[in-house]
Structure formats: C-alpha cells, structure tokens
Amino acid sequence: MSTFSPSPSASTSPSTPTLPGGTWDLGDLTVTRFGYGAMQLAGPGVMGPPADRDGALAVLRAAVELGITHIDTADAYGPHITNQLIREALHPYPDPLRIVTKVGATRDAQGGWPPAREPEALRRAVRDNLETLGLDALDVVNLRLGNAQGPQPGSLAEAFGTLVDLQRDGLIRHLGVSNATAEQVAEARGIAPIVCVQNMYNLAYRGDDGLIASLAEAGIAYVPFFPLGGFSPLQSEALSAVAARLASTPMSVALAWLLRRSPNILLIAGTSSTAHLRENIVGAGLSLSDEDLGELDKIGR
Q: How far apart are CA 133 and CA 192, in angstroms?
C-alpha cells in the first residue's frame, strides 16, 4: 500500500499534509477534498441519538485533528441530533473548518424523508440549522431535491429563490443543490452561482459522468453521496481483484478511484468509528495505476 500523492491539479495546505487529494475552493472557502459525512452519527435509520454518544463526539474531534476541514451534515439527521453533536464536539469552530448542510426534506414518524421545499419550510430549516449548529451564518447550504428514489424533474425556481433571498440576508454564504438532475443544476446556475452539486455517484453508479465534467470546467465541486454504495456496500469482482492486487480493501480502492476520477470530486464518506475514519483516509491515498483505473472504469459502464 502506498501513501498518497496529491494530484497535480489539487492544491495542498501546510495544515493538512496527510490528507489525500489536497484542497478545493467552495467559492472563497477552502476545504480538504477528503471530508467527513456526519449522517451515520445519528441512531439507526438516521433517527434519534447514537448508542455511543461519546464515541460520536470522538469521531468528530478526530476528523478535525486529522486535518479535515469539510464536514457535511443536515438538521434532518436525527432530526437535530447530528448538528447538536457537531456543536458539542467542535464549537467554537476552528477557523479552517467549513460545515456544509442541506435543507428541503424533513423526517416523519416512520423515518421517511418527505419533501419540505415551501418557502416557509426552507426559512425554518435554515433557522433550525443556525440554532443547532450555533452559527450566525451557514457556510454552504444545499437544496435537496427529488425524493428517496432519486432526482425528479421539475423546476426549483421558487425553492432556490428562497435560499437566494436568505443568502442576500447574510444567513447563507454559498449555495448548492443535492439529488438534482442536470437540468435543475443548469436552472439553479441561471438564478445564482452555486459552489457544489451533491448527488449519488460511485464506481458502480455512473449516471453523472457528463455532469461531473461540465462542473469541473466551471470550477464547481461535485460531492458524491453514497460513495461506497450506501446501505449496500459496493460489490464487484473487478473491484475485489484490484484491491487484492494492491493488498488493500475494496472500499479503499473505491475512495481512491473517486479522488482520481476528477479534481472537483470531494469525498464525504461517513463512519461512526475513529478507526474506520483513519482507514478511509489511508485507503483514499492509494496510488492507482493506469491498469487499475482501466479495470475499475469498466464497472459502471
């Protein structure tokens, strides 16, 4: 297993020399390309408190100690639980740390994710995120579109316009979209600048290949959720073969592939274990040969 070497197109920071991938700019906010997704810190089904609260707090503190400056969350996780944990573990937040949240969905008693994109619901969600995180302004807010089955067509103009108004009021620094179609991304960009798109993408699920390329040209980050396959981990003979050849794990190879896939891809792999967090960092720094990449690229095609 080799240590990471930053890609030529990614900048690096003296404060984060051990993280693979270097950094990326979300507007005027610089973040490590290797970030942390906090969803798994809530209880089962992303509902309620974690079984091990001290362990959850330890993971968040370890992420910052390891140099991660990009934490992804949402007040719907728990609900409220994940943001409360972030605040308890890390507030007052160190200057390099950037917290990215999302609005546009809430939780029901059955653990579902019903949309909540009416203007007042979005304004309330932004206020809730500010309160639970203990912030005066949110670094980045993604508008969550679609539903649990994936992106759905339709205009985002009213909902996105509400967030633009909140940005003008100084409550949001930068905007993004999540679970969006390419047409919705284009519509959002026609209304106001965005700094990121957060969609489902991984080695086996490659529907956004074209979108990633167009966003890279525009200097916009692409942030895959479920980078390791989601609740069902990635399964592939080719992936296992490459991992065996590198004396590594399939999940490590999948993370390393994402960082090599495009310089605008940011990782937010989540975990509730500090040991697993460290394993993910090491794994994402694997050096993949052209032969490795060729075999892996065939998986999702």
A: 25
- For CA atoms 152, 156, 160, 162, give the dihedral sign: negative
Q: Which two tokens stand for residue 272?
A: 């509730």
> What φ, ψ does residue 183 adopt, rounded to 5°?
-65, -40
Residue type, 111: G
- Return all residues near 127 (Cβ < 8 A) that are at least 6 apart: none
Q: What is the DSSP letter of 45?
A: G
Q: Which residues are catalytic?
A: 77
Q: How far apart are CA 18 and CA 161, in angstroms?
A: 39
pTM higher than 0.90, yes or no? yes
Rg (CA), the chain: 18
Q: Which residue, 258, 212, 261, is CA-closest to 269?
A: 258
> Within a 10 A sphere around the Cβ of 92, how many other Cβ atoms?
7
Assigned token pair, 247: 């004396």
Q: How far apart are CA 144 and CA 210, in angstroms?
A: 20
Q: Convert the pLDDT of each residue in 35-93 to its tens digit.
A: 999 999 999 999 999 999 999 999 999 999 999 999 999 999 999 999 999 999 999 99
